Every structure is written in structure tokens, then in C-alpha cells.
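Input record (one chain):
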Amino acid sequence: MGKLKRLIRKSKVMDISIDYNGEKINFNLHQELRVNEDIINEQLKDQPTHYGFLLMLRARLISKLAQAKKDKSERHSELWQEYREETNPITGRAYTKEDILAIIDNDEEYTELYDTVIKLSEEVDILDAAVNSFEQRSYLLQTLSANTRKQV
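The corresponding structure, as predicted from the sequence alone:
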């Protein structure tokens, strides 16, 4: 057995956990991608459902990501407008661009929105990898099925 194959079996990288509207969706990508030639017809029939589920979840997370980016941008603009017109109590002068950016970066609500964008981006990227893996699995299943038909 190759080193990469051992790593795949031992690593938690293949354990996928996506949070969608309070629902935890967990699966092991390695297990889901396995092909059992004894039940290849059943796996061929199930493939579109698995693939479709991942695509729908990805699409919905992309929508949530777009909204999160919009919310983060709006909070940034709100803070910018608020402090652009304020006076720095320490210097008695208007806030500089750098001051305002530091205030924005330290704003708790903005930081939470930024963290949400990062988390959703990661989940979309993970689902992209899973979708691509299922595409590869589909090609493999089709090839194995064709080979089985040729042998008969």
C-alpha cells in the first residue's frame, strides 16, 4: 500500500463537516467515493443523487457567501461613514484613513462578519473538491460498467 493511500485512510482531511442553516452535514469523502464492483449498477443509480445533493448544497452556500460578503461590505461602509465625519478625541483632528481602517478591523461585528465569509468560503471550496471527486467517480463507474459489459 502506498504512502498516500495510508495517509488518506488515517487523515481527518477526508472527514467533511458543513454547517447549513443549523444542520450539520457530515460524511467521509473517502468512504463515499469508494467503488464496489459487486454493486456497480446500484452505485451508478445512486451517483446522480449524491452529485446533485452536493451541487445543491454548494449552490446554497454560494448564495449565503454572497450575502455574507454583502453584509461585511455594508458594515465596512457604515463604519467608514461614521468615523469619516468624526474627530479623533486624542488628536482633536479628523480620523485618518489608517485610523478608520484600524477601527473597522477591530470592530466586533465586522470581525464576526469577516469570519463568516472565511468559513463559508472554506466550505464552498471543500464542496468544490467533493463535487470534482464525484465527477471523477462518475467517469470511473462508467468505465467499469462498460468493461463489465464487454466481458459478458
